[in-house]
Amino acid sequence: MNSDPPPALPTSANPSLPPLATSRSTELAALWAGYGALHRVSAPVVRGGPLVPLVLKQIDLSGGADDTSLSHRRKVASYAVETTFYLHYAPSLPASVPVAQAYASRTAVAKTGSVIEGVGDGGRYPAYSSLTLALADLSPSFPVDGDSQSPLNRAAAGVVLTWLARFHAHFWGFTGSGVWRRGGYWYLATRPAEHARALRSPVHAWLAAKADKWDKYLEETSVALVHGDAKCANVLFSSSVSECAFVDFQYVGRGNPMSDVAKLLATSVEVEGTQLEGWVRDVYYPALVAAKPDVGVTADMVCEWAEVAMLDWARFAAGWGWWGNVKWVHAVVAGLRAKWDT
Questions:
Q1: Are residues 129 and 108 in contact, defined by beta-carbon separation less than 8 angstroms?
Q2: Contact (CB, 8 A) for 333 and 242
Q3: Beta-carbon contacts of residue 180 (< 8 Å; ≥ 6 apart)
Q4: In the chain, % of residues over pLDDT 90
Q5: Tens-digit pLDDT profile for residues 40-49
Q6: Which of 1, 197, 217, 247 falls between 20 and 30 A from 111, CA-CA?
Q7: For the CA atoms of 86, 89, 91, 96, what is the dihedral angle to 10 degrees?
Q8: pTM score, two decimals?
Q9: Is residue 158 predicted with pLDDT exceeding 50?
Q10: Is residue 241 very low, low, confident or very high in pLDDT (cuts 50, 70, 90)?
């Protein structure tokens, strides 16, 4: 982590706030594929107020101006989606679902009226050339990086699954706009190359052959807003690992809640010797009902959603490449084949 002159700060997202000003910044991390960096700064967020710790998410998309690939276009759209989420939807979350507060944002549009479309979900998103978000620094309350706890033990996994259940409950029946029409990054329309590779897999071709079935099922049961990339790297824990917060909402959108659960279990949790149904029925579902007693779905229904979500995750991984709890996912999928390969 290097101390550098501060990056250009965004204008206030709230007209009552002063322009943000700071004297130094520390780079925390580079963003995926060289799209920018995270910086820690201190700045006042109320006029005349004290300096408070902030994290600047500074994104530069201009280098890919000639890149017309689906991957690049979805990445550009994802940052517009994340900005919309932080500014318009995150403030409605209760304290029991911690996320960073957005204090300011600044965007530069690549071309007047320019939009990103054809990215798999039928949506149209602003085509920014650069974007900066000023977010509250969560590290004072959540100093433990999720990756340092990976794979999550049962207690830590329960904390994360409870956060997800409360998040889903809060946005149950979501009909808003500005975020992905379909949350996540591995549903079928976004992964044609991976689907083609999975069809050639000697072991998992059946998953790819049924891809339309999993995809239709999950789209028709898209009942809530999903995080879209639920994994250890996007989690911060309190010192006691009894609470958590999520970051990185680039793939937030409507979806089946079990897509979040499937990815978390498949990549980030100590699952050896456990059953998929047990995580859903004993951990996730009680937290969902506690947060939304009138949720209107049974544990049996949610367990079935989880089965299809895991089959769909395995369909993607078979084409992209396996990582995380590979043997466990293979065992789960093998156990489900008799029921679903019809």
A1: yes
A2: no
A3: 77, 81, 121, 123, 228, 251, 252, 253, 254
A4: 66
A5: 988 887 777 8
A6: 247
A7: -100
A8: 0.91
A9: yes
A10: very high
268 within 8 A of 151, measured Cβ to Cβ: yes
- One-letter amino acid at 214 equals W
Block residue for tokens 């280098």: 63
Query: What angle separates helix 258-268 from helix 299-320, to the nearest 10 degrees?
Result: 50
Single-letter code of the amino acid located at 37:
A
Distance between CA 314 and CA 334 in Å, rounded? 11
Q: What is the 3-state secondary structure (H, E, C) of the chain?
A: CCEECCCCCCCECCCCCCCCCCCCEEEEEECHHHCEEEEEEEEECCCCCCEEEEEEEEEECHHHCCCCCHHHHHHHHHHHHHHHHHHHHHHHCCCCCCCCCEEEEEEEECCCCCEECCCCCCCCEECEEEEEEEEECCCCCCCEEHHHHCCECHHHHHHHHHHHHHHHHHCCCCCCCCCECCCCCCCHHHCHHHHHHHHCCCCCHHHHHCHHHHHHHHHHCCCEEECCCCCHHHEEECCCCCCEEECCCCCCEEECCHHHHHHHHHHHECCCCCCHHHHHHHHHHHHHHHHCCCCCCCHHHHHHHHHHHHHHHHHHHHHHCCCCCHHHHHHHHHHHHHHHCC
pLDDT given for residue 167 in this prediction: 98
- Report the alpha-carbon distance of residue 35 to residue 221 in Å, rounded: 33
Tokens of 150: 């990976």
Paired tokens of 80: 């517009």
Is the separation of the CB atoms in 187 and 312 below 8 Å? Answer: yes
Q: Tell me if 50 sits within 8 A of 44, measured CB to CB.
A: yes
Pairing of strands 51-60, 102-109: unpaired
Tokens of 39: 């910086």
Neighbour tally for 42: CB within 10 Å = 17
Q: Quote the tokens at residue 206.
A: 């059946």
Looking at this protein, which amino acid is placed at residue 55?
A: V
